[in-house]
Structures are given as C-alpha cells and as structure tokens.
Amino acid sequence: MEILEAIRRRRSIRDYKPDDIPEEVLLRILEAGRWAPSGKNFQPWKFIIVRDEKVRRQLAEASAQQYFMAKAPVIIVACGYPEESYARMGRYMKSWVVDVAIALEHMMLQAAAEGLGACWIGAFEEKEVKKILGIPDNVRVLALTPLGYPAEDPSPRSRKSLEQIISYEHY
Ligand SMILES: Cc1cc2nc3c(=O)[nH]c(=O)nc-3n(C[C@H](O)[C@H](O)[C@H](O)COP(=O)(O)O)c2cc1C
Fold first, then answer.
1. Is the pLDDT of residue 13 over 80?
2. Cβ < 6 Å from ligand 1: which residues?
C-alpha cells in the first residue's frame, strides 16, 4: 500500500472486534516502529505489548476510564528513556518525546496498512500505568494505543488546509 494511502486510511478507532491479531501481523507493526528515526539513533524506547484481558481493563481504567481500549485484543504502551535520549535537540530539549512519538506513529500507520485500527491515548495517569506494568522510575510513559480489527468505520475528521499550515521561504 502507498504510504499516503495508509496515512489517509488511518482513523482513530474506538470500537474493536474481539478477533486476535496474527503474530506475523503484530510483528510487522512492531518492526515498523523499530525502524523509526531517533535523535542520534539512540532509540530511547521500549514498547510493552499487553494481551492479558484483566491488565487491558486496568490500563483502560487508568486512561480516564476509556473502556473501549480494553475491547481491542492488544494494547501497546509506549515508553521512553529520557536519560538515554539526545539531550540538546534545538539546543533546548531532550528528544525522547519526539523519538517515541515517531516510532509509535510508524506502528499506527503500519497497523492502518494491515487493516487494523488504533487510537493514540494521551489521557492516562502515568503513575497508575507504571504501577500496573511494573515500569521503573527512570522510564516515562508517553502514550498507549489499543490495537485490533475495527468494529466501526468513522468518517475522516477535518484538517486545517495546506494554506493554513504552510509558508514558503519565510514565516
Ligand atoms: C497527543 C494525542 C493524545 C490523544 N489522546 C486521546 C485520548 O486519550 N483518547 C482518544 O479517544 N483519542 C485521543 N487522541 C486521538 C485524537 O482525538 C485524534 O487523533 C484526532 O481527533 C483526529 O482524529 P483521527 O485520528 O481519526 O484523524 C489523541 C491524539 C493525540 C495525537
């Protein structure tokens, strides 16, 4: 599938069929994240794959009670290592947030190309998620996403026009 087609096909999916994800499909999705770029190629990330139904429900509870997450057979929890990331991006920030976000988006696009749905989850209690999964203090949780076959086909949400977001040669 063309990359632009996968980008256009991707929607935030908030209802899932219970069907399991074949191992080879999941591996291709994870592989897409593995090849993501990162500051100085430090790859300061770890992705926790959660299949256990009870744990999925706990994660949904810790994510502002977004229970639709637990309907998906898999939840990916995207973690970053701030101290192992490029420290001077733009000379003012650590790169881990960007690095982990790019990798997770790579996975979400591959998921779309495989006919799977996902939904970036930013509303979560990091403390709770870390407790549920035994994530150490020095590791940060950036986002979660459910992953599964869509049980809905939402229409595209609007986007700003190119004119609104692009300028040429100067600001
Ligand atoms: C940083 C971030 C946080 C988000 N958090 C949530 C969330 O907690 N729950 C949710 O249902 N959607 C969440 N979303 C999904 C957005 O609502 C969604 O991407 C946006 O409305 C555009 O819709 P689309 O993804 O279908 O194109 C989040 C997206 C991003 C990028």
1. yes
2. 11-12, 14, 66, 119-123, 157
CATH says 3-150 is which class? alpha beta
- The answer to whether 86 and 41 are in contact (CB under 8 A) is no
β 74-80/45-50 pair status: antiparallel
Q: Whose CA is nearest to atom 29 of ligand 1?
A: 120
Residue bearing the CA closest to ligand 1, atom 27: 11
Which residue type, as a one-letter code, is found at position 29?
Answer: I
Identify the residue whose tokens are 């590791």: 139
Average per-residue pLDDT for the chain: 97
43-57 pLDDT, tens per residue?
999 999 999 999 999
Residues in the chain: 171
Q: What is the per-residue pLDDT for 119?
A: 98
- Both tokens assigned to 103: 């990798």
| Per-residue pLDDT tens digits for 149-167 | 999 999 999 999 999 999 9
CA–CA gap between residue 137 and residue 79 (Å, rounded): 12
For residue 58, is pLDDT > 90?
yes
Distance CA 105, CA 108 (A): 5
Query: Which residues fall within 8 angstroms of residue 31, CB to CB, at 6 or more apart?
Result: 110
Is the Cβ–Cβ distance between 135 and 79 less than 8 Å? yes
Domain ranges for the chain, please list them. Answer: 3-150
